[in-house]
Design a protein that fits this description.
about 160 residues; mainly alpha; Hyaluronidase domain-like; two-stranded antiparallel sheet
């Protein structure tokens, strides 16, 4: 849905074109206890592309963010968490952006738990994601980096 939405509004800078991030898509989505972990260093190039001194206002233009959304949209939930986490860690404490990255991570974690059949954990993580989205809305934030909270929450349905 996110990629379709991005194509419709013409935000190709987010990687809406299907092939743009295909080189970063592993052959399988890692699901603990089901599929093997990715080789050590699989995400190194992606993580190395991000500099912690990058201005917060352009985090949304980073390769990590765009590939993270791509992973989320393609059901690579563990991988999404892996590449969005450095953004979350680099964002200022209590900032809307940090909460937004945490929201993406929790939604990805929920998707992973659903894939694993751990529905109680899935429900708990969806609740955490809803709380984070509510916190952002209470600050008057409906979107960050052009991505609506509702479009991220879509992946919990």
């Amino acid at each position: 849905m996110l990629i379709l939405w991005l194509i419709l509004i013409g935000l190709t800078r987010w990687g809406a074109m299907q092939g743009e991030f295909a080189q970063y898509l592993p052959d399988w989505a890692y699901v603990p206890g089901v599929t093997p972990r990715h080789p050590e260093g699989w995400f190194s190039d992606l993580k190395d592309s991000f500099r912690t001194h990058t201005p917060l206002e352009i985090f949304g233009d980073t390769l990590l963010f765009r590939v993270g959304l791509y992973y989320l949209d393609h059901g690579y939930f563990w991988e999404c968490h892996e590449v969005v986490e450095p953004l979350w860690l680099a964002a200022p404490a209590r900032s809307a952006e940090r909460i937004f990255f945490q929201l993406i991570i929790q939604v990805a974690n929920a998707g992973l738990k659903r894939k694993m059949g751990r529905m109680n954990a899935y429900s708990r993580l969806v609740g955490k994601a809803e709380t984070l989205a509510s916190d952002l809305r209470s600050r008057g934030v409906d979107a960050i980096y052009g991505i609506k909270l509702a479009d991220i929450m879509y992946y919990t349905a």
